[in-house]
Design brief:
single chain, mainly alpha, rod-shaped
């Protein structure tokens, strides 16, 4: 199916998200320029075809005119040469117009390739920057984690040492307290001494 300017104007592209792409307004403006030039080319081709058709119809009707005149030998030569030159010029114009259209298409393809290459380069640069930042963040987080782990390990060891000291203090205190009470119990169970009438105030109660 032949492509027409209306096909370009009415073409709808699917929008994508979270991906690199071109500015839709810039693409639409450029397509509008292509459509304008394309329509000019089509109009020129139509006019040239109509002109060729007119010249061909004139060339077909011209040989009948000399039949009513007295000089049939001179007229056919002039009439036959004129349409040959005109189609040649028309063919040259058509070729020039086709070349212009081909140049426009080639320019559009080149600009498209340039935009695609630029978009790919930008996307690669953004990906590289993102990867570098991610590596930096991960490295910083790992270093912070090691620092926190070392600090917590040091605090844990300090707390364990303190707990050991408190347990040892508890054992020593219990032992001393037990010895104290055992001594007091032994003193209470011991037989009275010769001065067994020691005043109660002297016992320290």
């Amino acid at each position: 199916m032949a492509l027409t300017p209306e096909d370009v104007v009415t073409k709808q592209f699917q929008h994508v998200r979270f991906k690199e792409g071109f500015d839709p307004d810039e693409v639409d403006d450029f397509l509008d320029e292509i459509v304008v030039e394309w329509r000019k080319t089509i109009d020129e081709n139509t006019q040239l075809k109509e002109r060729i058709a007119e010249l061909e119809s004139g060339a077909a009707a011209a040989p009948e005119a000399p039949a009513a005149e007295e000089k049939p030998a001179e007229a056919p030569e002039v009439v036959e040469e004129a349409p040959e030159a005109a189609p040649s010029d028309a063919s040259g114009s058509v070729t020039s117009t086709a070349t212009s259209a081909a140049g426009i298409i080639a320019r559009a393809e080149r600009l498209h390739d340039e935009h695609v290459a630029e978009g790919e380069a930008t996307a690669k640069r953004l990906v590289d920057d993102a990867e570098a930042k991610a590596e930096s963040i991960v490295s910083s987080a790992e270093a912070k984690q090691r620092e926190i782990s070392q600090k917590l390990d040091s605090e844990r060891k300090s707390l364990e040492g303190r707990i050991t000291e408190l347990r040892q203090f508890e054992r020593d205190y219990r032992q001393q307290l037990r010895g104290y009470f055992e001594q007091k119990l032994a003193d209470l169970d011991a037989p009275d001494s010769g001065s067994g009438k020691t005043p109660v105030s002297a016992v320290g109660l």
